[in-house]
Design brief:
mainly alpha; 355 residues; 53% helix; two-stranded antiparallel sheet; 3 domains
Length: 355
């Protein structure tokens, strides 16, 4: 009896060991099978990454199948089709820009496409002088075209919800680098710019504008002129004071960059009486019209905006580029002093035959 019981125990132990071994083998086979189907490298390109664009108008099964097939190995593609069929992905395709890293698994690729996990586009907003320039840049970065963007921002009804008019639209565009989805519409873009503008105008900046007796739009309009006048950040607060002083005294701003804007010719190096006369009817002619022009003449940098908000307290009413062409300016409180500075500068221009 004892021997029988011992044998039974041994048989049972042996059976348990076999069961454990079989379970381990089964787990290993299952893991290997799962790895082969879902987790092993699935891409078929040699570059470090590839970008899959799914346009809004082509967010359909045939287009996506062809797109994924071009970038993945056959077995991985078959798995992608199975996953898509099983989860109903074909009925909820999300357009956008998707970056696939080299050797990404088909599970990662599927998860990103299914979840709409787009790779955002970087928009680096610098200085734009016109709405057309802005539209061209944005249209070259996003799915929407230059025409789509320009049509939207040139439509008064489209931009009315943002509290701006055609002339003041550019006051919402704060130069910086932003991340935005590739398939964003012109409306999405402007909503984002409006949000960023609201965030930019902190309580501190708003208080500084009020102390100057200026609205946000007026601050940016002055800043746009300062932006076009100089790249010297140290001079910007002084130059801003000149324009603010002129406004307070009811003088014409007499800003050359506004004449260039009125002409639509930003290559002019020397503004002449002929240029001023030919733009006499333009509201952007700040020699003939007192006060600020209807809106900014470019999208000024943050440094220029803050230079206006923190303008130096001076009695300067004039400035003129220095005759050494250093990019610096000579500032003056009286017309006599200014005329002397201007004479020296004109003489330097004449010597170089700059007209």
């Amino acid at each position: 009896m004892v021997q029988k019981k011992t044998r039974k125990k041994q048989v049972k132990k042996r059976s348990n060991k076999i069961s454990i071994i079989l379970l381990v083998i089964l787990a290993f086979v299952s893991s290997a099978f799962f790895y082969v189907l879902f987790l092993r490298p699935a891409t078929n390109f040699n570059a470090e990454q590839a970008t899959l664009y799914i346009p809004t108008k082509k967010a359909e099964k045939l287009f996506v199948k062809d797109l994924v097939r071009k970038h993945t190995k056959p077995v991985a593609f078959t798995t992608f089709i199975a996953l898509s069929d099983w989860t109903g992905y074909w009925n909820e395709i999300k357009p956008g820009k998707y970056v696939i890293e080299k050797n990404a698994s088909i599970f990662t690729i599927f998860r990103n496409l299914k979840g709409g996990r787009q790779t955002p586009v970087e928009l680096t907003i610098n200085k734009f002088r016109t709405r057309r320039e802005l539209a061209k840049y944005v249209g070259g970065k996003l799915e929407c075209t230059e025409s789509d963007v320009y049509r939207f921002i040139s439509n008064s009804d489209s931009i009315q919800p943002f509290g701006v008019q055609q002339e003041t639209l550019m006051t919402l565009i704060i130069p910086n680098t932003y991340e935005i989805y590739w398939n964003s519409s012109p409306s999405d873009f402007m909503r984002r710019m409006n949000k960023e503008s609201n965030a930019f105008w902190t309580d501190s900046r708003i208080d500084n504008a009020k102390l100057l007796g200026l609205s946000k739009e007026e601050v940016i309009t002055i800043a746009s002129i300062v932006e076009e006048e100089t790249n010297n950040n140290e001079e910007k607060p002084i130059m801003a004071s000149v324009y603010i002083n002129r406004l307070k005294q009811g003088m014409a701003l007499g800003a050359d960059p506004t004449i260039k804007f009125a002409l639509g010719d930003f290559s002019i190096r020397r503004v002449t009486l002929k240029h001023i006369s030919s733009t006499a009817g333009s509201p952007y002619n700040t020699y003939r019209n007192k006060g600020l022009p209807p809106g900014p003449i470019c999208t000024p940098s943050i440094s220029s905006i803050d230079a206006v908000l923190k303008a130096k307290k001076t009695d300067y009413l004039y400035f003129c580029a220095k005759a050494d062409f250093s990019g610096s300016h000579s500032f003056a409180s009286t017309a006599e002093e200014h005329f002397e500075n201007a004479r020296k500068y004109r003489k330097a221009l004449d010597s170089l035959k700059i007209h």
